[in-house]
Amino acid sequence: QNEEKWDFVLVSDIHEMGSQKEIKRKKFLDELSKKGFTIKKIEDTKLFYGVRAPQDVFLKYQHLQRKADSRQQNSSAHEDVEETTRIRIVNFILRNTVTPDFEKLHDLMKKKVFEAAFPLHKKEEIREILKEKWARWGVIFKEQPIKEIRHYFGEKVALYFAWLGWYTYLLVFAALAGLVTIVAGTTVFSSSQVSKEICDANTTFMCPLCDQNCSFWVLSDTCTYAKVTHVIDNEATVAFAMFMAVWATVFLELWKRERAAVVTKWNLHEWDEDEEELALQLINNLQHKPRWYQHSYFCSTIILILALLLITVLIGIAHMLIIYRAVAMALFMQSEVTLLSKHANTMAVLTGAVLHYITIIIMTKARSRTGPWALLPFLEEPRTLSQQENSFAVKIFIFQFFTNFSSLIYVAFFLGRINGHPGQYMRIAGRWRLEECHPSGCITDLFIQMAVIMLLKQTISNIMEYLIPLISHELRKKRKRPKKTSMMLGEEEEAEDPCKKQWLSNYELNEVNFFSLFNEYLEMAIQYSFTTIFVAAFPLAPLLALINNVIEIHMDAIKMMRLHRRMVPRKAKDIGIWLQVLEAIGILAVIGNGLVIAITSDFIPVQVYKYMYSPCRRENRTSMDCSTGYINNSLSVFRIQDFEPHTKVLLEFKGHQIKEYRDYRNADDYTYTVQFWHVFAARLAFLIIFEHVALCVKLIAAWYIPDIPQWVKNKILKEKYDNLRNEPRWVMRWKVPG
């Protein structure tokens, strides 16, 4: 029965005898045979080669890792080493075996000598446990079997799911805080003084929103929009933004404790990646010389230039989205369809958000296929696999971050602030006016943009992420087995080979690669960015992330267990560079939310009005709402005769020669008023205070919660003490005689 346990399977097309590909394949298999590998060949529509490593390979590994003990050295062949360790060692040897033509497996797969190389999903007890307790929808609210995941997929995958589970658990508190913020906002849905004033402003006529054939409009027409804005934009939002800054820190600090506990239970706290890599290299080739650490300032400069060029391209794409919104706004305003013309601004925001989502999908696909990062391995030459992954992670995260957030940054910080004023508008190509903010602020535009992108990412993207592997698997099953049905009688004897069915069923599963887990981390890092950075504008982001993650965990489990080939297990004692990425996002979240409240929100202008310009300030009244009169105060007047000559305005409100717009400008020369500079100074002061307070609270939280639990420290200390006490007896001879 041991003979039928195979570590890896290589798949090849059936090449002509004597062909170049057949010769290269034979040379590679001969090299494996020289290393003592057992190889079994099965022929179907493809050639399948089962590979099993000799036991001395694993004994060498145990010795080099200083983990061998008498039980392991004397035990039977297939019980010495864990299955995940066997697969990892065999994978390393396969990938680093060199033919006489100086070609490795990677080169041969590029030349179509081999089509695939993968470890097997085997019918074993642990796999059935995972299918029952993890990889099905019926256990969606139950705890993950992290121990079993580790024994089947290795530590790296187990740590990913442990981190994802921990993140999802703590999202419950963030989601509740977001819901409380929204509920607090809904209580002022009809009672907000600012929205009341907008709803009552039926004699306040605003400047047209486009240049051609647009009429003046009454401010009270946007009553509902104003009420929705003040559900998001209120005092509770400031408290929620501060809470999320602390939450992000507490989450990472608690994860560090959880990781330390998990890694200590797995006895990996002293594991060293360099030692592991050197051991595997020596097992594969005793004459191997280590690759030394290298650094080139020239290569780093080239990479930096490439990164800046990429960011420039992404900013250019964001500009295209800005142009679309400006053009769409003008076209919608002039549309004969009442729904479009009446809600032109909202429609421009919605369609712009959908276009942004489509851009994200296209750029993500482009990133996964090609791009300047394809040059990175040649420029940097990372020493180990983890270093290569870390290098990729930072650069690709930056690319994805700008892809996802460039348009949001424009909406949050530039929309309505660079568009000029009536009579002197900023235009694209001298024709289309840039958009303006609603009199109640721009935060609702940011809310809509984030809501659309998050909802589309969590519905369409997740459905496709599940359906594509499912459909692909079904198609492969139908496509790969025609020979079996047509030649059933001729292959009857061969079909009885128990390996054939197992190898075929594994081959029909979807391919996994080095980036499979990398892409999962990347997806979650981007989601974490949405959940924290602009959360002040979209308090429901943590709730959407929570719902997504509960589904995502089990969807990933089903894909890994039922739809994808077995991932090559990898050893790890942390989540790598992703922890630093998440910490950087936490700092960006403080800056981003501070800017949203200071710049995007109307919170600061309202406070300045209350304490410097309101009736309360002038008349010292305590019974009235101090924001009374804010809307009228925040509008500036404009004389119709000062419109630009090419502007064609439908003068429906004759007799009203003065119209209004949102800004703090003087009526005579349209320069900024003193109040504008008061608001500007208050925004800047709030931003500085908010960010310093939030960062101080983050630092205090990081200090207050130790990274490593006391019991872990004490366990490691006890191990060191016991090791010193159990030194060989000859050490005792050094004692000074009494």
From TrEMBL:
Locate the transmembrane regions by residue number. 157-184, 236-255, 297-324, 344-363, 392-416, 525-554, 575-599, 680-705
- How does the record classify its membrane topology? Multi-pass membrane protein
Gene Ontology cellular-component annotations: plasma membrane
* Domain Anoctamin dimerisation, residue spans: 79-146
Q: One MF term in GO for this entry?
A: protein dimerization activity
Which part of the chain is the Anoctamin transmembrane domain? 149-718
The protein's UniProt keywords, in alphabetical order, are: Cell membrane, Glycoprotein, Membrane, Transmembrane, Transmembrane helix
Could you tell me where this protein is found in the cell? Answer: Cell membrane; Membrane
The reply to whether Nucleotide-binding figures as a keyword in the UniProt entry is: no
Family to which the UniProt record says this protein belongs: Belongs to the anoctamin family.
Q: What is this protein's record name?
A: Anoctamin
Which species is this UniProt entry from? Falcunculus frontatus (Eastern shriketit)
